[in-house]
Amino acid sequence: MAHCWGQCAALIRCRTASSLLLTSLDDEFLLYVQPPINRPVSLPHFRKVMSQPTHNYYDNCCALEQYDIELENGWHRRWKVFCQLLPSMKTDGARVYKIFCDTALIFSVFVLPNIVAAGMAYIYIVACVDPISAISAALHYSRGSWLAYIITLPFFGIVAGFVNLVLLAVLIKPVSKSAILMFLAAIIGFAPVWTPYVIEAALRQHIWNVECNGYDGTILLDAVNYAQSGLSKAQFPAAFGGLEWQLAESADGIWDFSPVDGQSKVTYNLRNETYIVHDTTVPEAGNLTLQKESLEFPGFGLHSDGKWFRSCFAPAVNLRDSTGNSIVKTGVTAYTDCSVMEVCAMNSMGTDAVVVAIGRILIALQEGAQCCTRSRWE
Asked: What are the helix and strand counts (H, E) for the chain?
């Protein structure tokens, strides 16, 4: 209570600069104020209850006026006091409308282009460094969808760059008077144009080095592209034999996957969507899923979610076992070559399961490489 009295007394001293007496009687707080000479008393926080005291307890307080203090606990009282201290403001509709229009103009001219450019850059970066994501699948739905996006991306960056350059030249006057400062302002202003590619390259390099951490090994796939001749190959790590395997098409739609200079170990028949594993006592056979379906190998207990085949690009899939553990997962492609890709693999399901999955992924990679590398030559 003493703390509350001190706050009330301090408030009255500040607002009236007059003599006062704050006391309590029967749990009721009363404030007596002696107004300064020739100065009206303005006490908006208190309610005046009588002009002269009548209780004998206040006989020595003649010429004091009595006020009843309304005490409230918590933030309600503080908010009420704060609002009463604010100067009264009349709402001007025309002024509010003008402020709204100016704010909308500044937002649409200067802020919105940068927001759109940043959003476009984010989508591009995610599609490049996270090929299994839904964003990547959407952009690579067709060759036209990806080409349209990479053509549109720099356009929004250029628009945002011009806006930023004008803003820098207007706000910083020395910029428009110096060729060097104008050049630096252009580099900074046009950051939405070049930063997506710099960030994507840096992230891709980092992911390339660390994405298979926690797996038993990294398998490097190198598919034949449009400008090459030869066979697509897969380099297996020591955990999977350490051999280099090659993929050859023996007939239309018939592919053989085998170690280099070795006999075929797996045959894929894309005509009837089947495969046969030859390097076992009893050849194992299984069905292949269509390209539009999720990749699965029921015979090995491997399955995936979502569309794995990318139009005119490298495939993207994460094959899991029945418990949800990742067994074979495709990674990013090389920065300058969409025909080279890393694949992370675990040996917990056996080497045959990994080999069969890698061979099918390599077939899809070669088909995508024939398209994505052709755009550079035609």
From this structure: 10, 14
Tokens describing residue 314: 């490298």
Q: How far from the centroid of its chain's Cα atoms is residue 304's Cα?
A: 25
Tell me which DSSP letter residue 215 carries: S
Question: Which of left, alpha, beta for 55 (phi over 0: left; psi -120 to 50: alpha)?
Answer: beta
SS3 for 141? Answer: coil
Single out the residue of 310, 311, 373 nearest to residue 143, CA to CA.
Answer: 311
Contact 277, 283 (CB under 8 A): yes
Both tokens of residue 296?
A: 């699965």
Report domain extents, the chain.
Answer: 2-85, 93-208, 215-376
* Alpha carbon distance 291, 122 (integer Å): 28
Q: How do residues 117-131 score in pLDDT, each as one tens digit?
A: 999 999 999 999 999
Q: What is the Cα–Cα distance from 219 to 238, expressed in whole angstroms? A: 10
Helix axes 191-210, 143-171, angle to 10 degrees: 130
Kindly report the CA angle at 107 between 185 and 145, in degrees rounded to 5? 80
User: What's the predicted TM-score (pTM) here?
Assistant: 0.70
| Run of H or E including 338 | strand 337-345
Condensed to tens digits (0 to 9), the pLDDT of residues 223-240 reads 998 877 889 999 999 999
Q: State the fold for domain 215-376.
A: Porin (2.40.160)
